[in-house]
Amino acid sequence: MEPRCSETGPPFEDDAVAGQAGMWVATRGRFADSRRKRLRRVARPLQWAVEMSEPTPIARPPRFDHGFRRQLELLFRWRRDVRRFRTDPVDTALVDTLIGLAALAPSVGNSQPWRFVKVDDPARRDEVRRNFQACNRDALADYAGERARLYADLKLSGLDRAPVHLAVFADQDTGIGGGLGRRTMPETLAYSVVGAVNTLWLAARAFDIGVGWVSIVDPERIRTILDLPEGWALVAYLCLGHPEEDHLDPELERYGWQRRIDVADVIVHR
Fold first, then answer.
1. Where are the domains of the chain?
2. Please, are residues 23 and 34 in contact by the beta-carbon 8 Å criterion?
3. Over 80: is that where the pLDDT of 107 sits?
4. How much is the pTM?
5. How do the residues of the chain divide into helix, strand and coil, expressed in percent and rounded to 5?
6. pLDDT given at position 246
7. Does the 15-39+81-258 domain belong in CATH 3.40.109.10?
8. Which runs of consecutive H residues, i.e. helices, occur in the chain?
């Protein structure tokens, strides 16, 4: 029987699936290895979830038609780096759903090195915001003239209004995956986490949730503020929330900082 979509996706029921979709989620420095109970709660809000889990035998894999591919392209085109958020809250179950989908991303050696930290503590958020402001001042000093004016006018974070702050780390000390594929390229651990962040970003857009990636921070200082293990390296500090507005074009292009380049210019033939 071919998988079909339903209005209410089923929970993940077995530990085999929990092993595939399992993720580390930390809130204010307290860690939880998410297993069956959390996964059931994560899966239920996913209205268009497929009515089966990957380990379940199926007669044939799904076939994605032209309509689906067109919708997927629209999702890619309408994904934006959001800096302007409404302050109304995002359902906690939806945030967990997005994290669960992010954890389906590929990873080197199936190491699953992503660690998701929900930053809920107002005092920690304030410290993160102060660190951003200091780093942003330093970055501004690197520019001069018109470029400096443009930079100063840009809104480069949604830290002040986004209802959800989510820091995503790579666990560089993980033993999961046995080091497979990392001997010559250890940076693939961080690359794997980037893949998870991109997956979360696209999934969020499908739920009309905006995501903003705040990179103008000191990674080590953020790790210290959040009281996390030394082996955890910050990959992304994300703001999530309902966007104030939707745009097809990137904000940095709209405000004159940088236009998209022709993709033909980045393809090399050998």
1. 15-39+81-258
2. yes
3. yes
4. 0.79
5. 40, 15, 45
6. 85
7. yes
8. 15-21, 36-43, 66-78, 92-102, 122-140, 145-153, 188-206, 219-225, 251-254
